[in-house]
């Protein structure tokens, strides 16, 4: 097998599946908060189109799914890119919908402006934008750092 066949043939990610304990609650969150349109829905599966990627929600229940993630842990972090001004607009929309934001809009010490919050099953969600390096910290800190707001 060469580097362009088998596993070496992978060139993109088509979909991400989030395992859910409360599929209906997760469906409400992703349709109400993000206004994502449902592309496909069955009793155990919901798929949304997000750009070129499918975001799938699947009810936990297969033998290999394992137990639910403890309430104090996140199972995954999903990041959604927006234009820079939209990070703050997203923050205002989340606050208006009483979503618990875990980190308000922040210019990081890498060239991103970020906003972090959780979905109903504790997964970390990030809204981010690429920003100019002049808007970031002068030297990397290796941790989140507010430089401008």
What does this entry show, briefly?
The chain is an alpha/beta fold and 149 residues long. Helix content is 15%, strand content 33%.
Topology record:
Blueprint (H helix, E strand, L loop, with lengths): L14 E6 L2 H10 L5 E4 L3 E6 L2 E7 L17 E5 L2 H13 L4 E7 L4 E7 L5 E7 L19
Computed Rg: 18 Å
Helix content: 10-25%
Tell me the span between the first and last alpha carbons.
Answer: 51 Å
Q: Spans of 5+ residues with little confidence (pLDDT < 50)?
A: 144-149
**Number of helices in the DSSP assignment:** 2
Categorize the overall geometry.
globular
Structural class by helix and strand composition: alpha/beta
The CATH homologous superfamily of the largest domain is termed 2,3-Dihydroxybiphenyl 1,2-Dioxygenase, domain 1
Return the string of H and E elements: EHEEEEHEEE
The main β sheet shows up as: 4 strands, mixed
């Amino acid at each position: 097998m060469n580097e362009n066949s088998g596993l070496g043939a992978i060139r993109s990610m088509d979909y991400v599946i989030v395992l859910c304990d409360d599929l209906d609650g997760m469906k409400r969150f992703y349709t109400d908060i993000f206004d994502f349109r449902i592309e496909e829905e069955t009793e155990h599966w919901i798929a949304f189109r997000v750009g070129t990627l499918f975001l799938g929600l699947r009810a936990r229940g297969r033998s290999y799914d394992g137990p639910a993630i403890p309430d104090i842990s996140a199972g995954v972090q999903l990041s959604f890119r927006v234009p820079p001004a939209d990070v703050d607009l997203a923050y205002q929309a989340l606050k208006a919908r009483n979503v618990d934001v875990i980190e308000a809009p922040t210019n990081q010490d890498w060239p991103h402006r970020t906003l972090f919050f959780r979905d109903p099953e504790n997964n970390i969600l990030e809204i981010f934008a690429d920003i100019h390096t002049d808007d970031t910290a002068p030297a990397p800190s290796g941790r989140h750092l507010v430089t401008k707001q």
